[in-house]
Amino acid sequence: MPTDPSDASGTSPPRSEADAPSERKTPFSDDELEHFRDLLLQRRREAKAEIEQMRTQIENAKEQSDDNTAYGIHMADAGTDAMEREKLHLMISRQQKYIGYLDRALERIDNKTYGVCRVTGNPIAKERLEAVPHTEISIEAKRQEKSSS
User: Fold this and answer.
1) What pLDDT, on a 0 to 100 scale, did the predictor assign at position 28?
2) Which domain holds residue 40?
3) Residue 130 in domain
4) What is the tally of structural domains in the chain?
5) How far apart are CA 127 and CA 138, in angstroms?
């Protein structure tokens, strides 16, 4: 059973904030962290490219709807166009949120806390990080989360 540092004879140093489970250092080497950084940056570039593609689609749709032709646009067609634009805006918002998750994962790499579960404080399996590199929780924590809801 651990003793309180104030009770000790002064030989053991008091625990610091850095020793707390949430501040535990990464279980990965610098080379592995660089691998994950490259993976995160690649996914970030892909997400940004998708956002640009969707914005282009929205602009093209606006130009087509603003086109003054001799024929009027049927209300059902206008509604479908509006729904498609709304869907694209929602997808852009979702991608921006995903980029935020990727950015936070990159910060954890910089802070050397990447790969540590924020719930349990244990290392996250490398295989999980390969599949979901921006995750902050381990499989065990995810299972606990699902079973409690």
Assistant:
1) 95
2) 27-114
3) no
4) 1
5) 11
The two tokens of residue 3 are 């003793």
Instruction: Using DSSP, state whether 139 is helix, strand or coil.
Output: helix
Question: What is the pTM (predicted TM-score) of this model?
Answer: 0.74
pLDDT band at 23 (very low <50, low <70, confident <90, very high): low
Q: Decide: 96 and 51 in contact? Cβ < 8 Å.
A: yes
Collapse the DSSP code of 143 into the 3-class scheme (helix H, G, I; strand E, B; otherwise coil) and give the result: helix
Confidence at residue 110, expressed as pLDDT on a 0 to 100 scale: 96
Asked whether residue 58 is domain-assigned, the answer is yes
CB count in 10 Å sphere of residue 12: 10
**Which one has a higher pLDDT value, 121 or 23?**
121
Contact (Cβ atoms closer than 8 angstroms) between residue 25 and residue 80: no
The answer as to whether 48 is a domain residue is yes
Euclidean distance between CA atoms 34 and 41, whole angstroms: 10
What's the token pair of residue 106?
């990159």
Is residue 52 in some structural domain? Answer: yes
Q: Which amino acid is at 43?
A: R
Query: Which percentage of the chain shows pLDDT scores above 70?
Result: 77
Q: What pLDDT sits at residue 66? A: 61
Q: What is the CA radius of gyration of the chain?
A: 24
pLDDT of residue 67: 55
